[in-house]
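Researcher: First entry.
Model:
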Amino acid sequence: MHEYFAFALLGFTSFFTLINPLGVMPIYLSMTADLDREMKKRTARKATIVSFIILVLFAVTGQLIFKFFGITINSLKVVGGVIFFLMGQDMLQARLVRAKISEKEVNSYTNDISITPLAIPMICGPGAITNAILMMDTAESIVFQGILIIVLSIVCFATYLILLNSTRIYNLLGETGNNILMRLMGLIVMVIAVEFIVSGLTPIIRTILKIE
């Protein structure tokens, strides 16, 4: 039971910090400023549902993709760890690196902003996708895999609630509060990144040195 709880806690923490709904929130507010309440709700709902489907799809088919291209999970851990570290470093400096969208690009997405760019790549970015593949690989049984799917659904639902109440949350926290939370999340992401890099490099180094 303790192992299940630890796995679920790790999954929730890592996905929530990588998806970073509080970081997506200001962008969601600016892109839906001219929409009525019902349209804003529909946009947030569709964006989180699409993100959940994509994350589950990559989590389930990730190993097949690796086998097809001859990629090892340890290599992905190292690369994923580097990606996480860079993301965490930017978050630690309170920079919304995932929201680099010009006004011209935003206007081109007005027909369906819930899919692009809200769902991809803001909510479901490379960090979250990589984490889904890695977490599924570490799932030792169907129970762990089921826990991972449940955690993904909880995180996506929490993201939906945050976006739905983004105006209240942003006004309550203020710019300073949002920056503080982003820095804390960035620190957590960097710690997770180090763990991924170490766990990926250790078997690679052992193989090179031929250490059993």
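Researcher: Second entry.
Model:
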Amino acid sequence: MKVDTSKPLEYSTHENSNRIFGFWVFLGAEIALFATLFTVFFVLVNRFAEGPSGSELFEIGPVLIETFLLLTSSFTIGLAIHAMRHQYKRATLVFFGITLLMGLGFLGIEIAEFVTYVHEGATLQTSAFLSSLFVLLGTHGAHVTFGFLWGAAIMIQLMREGINPATANKSFIFSLYWHFLDVVWIFIFSFVYLKGLM
């Protein structure tokens, strides 16, 4: 395996560059998935049936905390990649760990939010609006859950193997995935929660 030292470690082999390109293609498919879910939500957003509307259901406090956690975690994963490029293993692991803890905090608040909705009688079966809402939020939450498990596995590899072309490539690809989830959340925050509260 030929390593090109003139490039960042995550791009330093031909295979690594191909993996990053392949992951960008995968993110294109993910964009199509979330675009479809957003379209369904916008079509069904006013179909409340006998259930509550967004303005009756949403609370801005927990949503702001979720947004703070996820956007800050995007910054910390950026710091992890920066540390990785300078071969600072400990700093890479610390920032990776902070990122994953914030992701876990986000998931905890989202699960509590879902439980509250269900106790208030807002379920998948209540209305078309709630069905589309739960599927959109649930799909994003499932992606964050997968991201947490994936990030934890990469951390274990970094601890065992250190920073090398393979672990650097995996870490960088993970950071692209995590940034993507943050971008999706900005759309959810803006067009689902804020619009729903108006």
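Model: Note on the second entry: The first helix runs from residue 14 to 44.
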